[in-house]
Write a structure and sequence with these properties.
113 residues, mainly alpha, 6 helices, 0% strand, flat
Length: 113
């Protein structure tokens, strides 16, 4: 979903595939939300390496221009991640909302005009 929504020019022909992918991803995040109802982090009540990659993917998921279901346990878990300075500095990096913004941010990050 990220690539056709952010890194490629808009194409109405991809809308159906994006909607299907959104539904599948939302279903997976609902499963994660149910899992997080039982514990604070992915592997229990302590932050572990397992939270890092899923936290990075969740940052993008929560910032994509899509509709999402209510996920209160995910929101609690994600809030805990955002309070970690390293997560905020290394993961919560603006990526833009479309191809033009993505390209401009990539160039700026590489020191290009």
């Amino acid at each position: 979903m990220f690539v056709p929504l952010i890194r490629q020019p808009p194409d109405p022909a991809r809308r159906g595939a994006i909607d299907q992918a959104t539904a599948k991803l939302n279903a997976q995040y609902q499963r994660l939300d149910a899992h997080l109802a039982q514990q604070a982090y992915l592997a229990g009540n302590d932050f572990t390496m397992g939270d890092v990659p899923l936290g990075a993917m969740t940052y993008r998921y929560l910032n994509l221009p899509i509709e999402r279901p209510e996920l209160p346990n995910l929101a609690r878990w994600y809030r805990a991640l955002t309070e970690r300075p390293a997560y905020a500095a290394r993961v919560m990096i603006e990526f833009g909302r479309n191809l033009e913004e993505w390209t401009a941010l990539e160039r700026a990050g590489a020191g290009q005009p």
